[in-house]
Backbone:
C-alpha cells in the first residue's frame, strides 16, 4: 500500500510540474527522478498481471478442492469395500487411530478390519458429501462427530492423519 501511495504522490508531482510548463521562478530546481521509486514501480505487477495472478490462485484453489474431494472419495471407496490395504495406502504415518498413535503401515495393518471398519464408522463415512468438505485446523474431517476420519496435506500430498 505504501508503494502505491508513493507512486501516486510522484505522479501528482510530475503532473503538477508538467502543468507549469517552462515557466520558472527564481529558486525552482528541476524535478529529478527518484531511482528508488522507479525501481519499485518496475517491480509492481501491472493490472493485467495482477488479474492473471488472481485467476491462477483461484484455479489452484479450485483444483485443490477437486483434489480433496477426489481423495475423500478414495477414502469412501476403501471404507465401502472394507479394503484395509487401500486405506493403509491413503494414511500418513504416524497417525492416530481411536486415540492411539500408529507409527507404521505394518502396525496399522495389525489393527485389523474389525477395529477400522466398524458399522458406525462405515455408515458415517459413506454419508459424507465430499463436495461440502471444509478445512479446519485439524484438516478435513469426514463425519460430524465421532466416528470420523481426518485427512490433510502432508508434504504436499493428502493423507489420513486420524481415524476416530
Residues:
Amino acid at each position: 500500500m505504501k508503494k502505491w501511495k508513493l507512486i501516486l504522490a510522484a505522479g501528482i508531482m510530475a503532473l503538477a510540474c508538467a502543468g507549469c510548463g517552462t515557466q520558472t521562478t527564481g529558486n525552482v530546481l528541476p524535478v529529478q527522478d527518484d531511482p528508488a521509486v522507479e525501481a519499485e514501480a518496475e517491480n509492481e505487477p501491472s493490472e493485467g498481471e495482477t488479474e492473471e495472478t488472481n485467476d491462477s490462485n483461484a484455479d489452484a484453489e479450485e483444483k485443490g478442492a477437486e483434489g480433496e474431494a477426489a481423495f475423500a472419495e478414495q477414502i469412501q471407496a476403501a471404507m465401502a469395500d472394507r479394503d484395509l490395504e487401500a486405506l493403509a495406502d491413503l494414511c500418513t504415518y504416524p497417525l492416530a487411530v481411536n486415540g492411539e498413535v500408529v507409527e507404521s503401515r505394518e502396525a496399522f495393518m495389525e489393527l485389523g478390519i474389525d477395529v477400522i471398519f466398524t458399522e458406525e464408522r462405515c455408515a458415517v463415512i459413506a454419508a459424507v458429501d465430499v463436495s461440502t468438505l471444509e478445512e479446519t485446523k485439524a484438516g478435513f474431517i469426514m463425519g460430524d462427530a465421532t466416528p470420523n476420519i481426518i485427512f490433510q496435506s502432508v508434504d504436499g500430498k493428502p493423507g489420513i492423519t486420524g481415524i476416530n
Observations:
- The two ends are 46 Å apart (CA to CA).
- Helices lie at 2-20, 35-43, 47-81, 84-90, 105-111, 113-116, 119-126.
- Residues 49 and 55 are 10 Å apart (CA to CA).
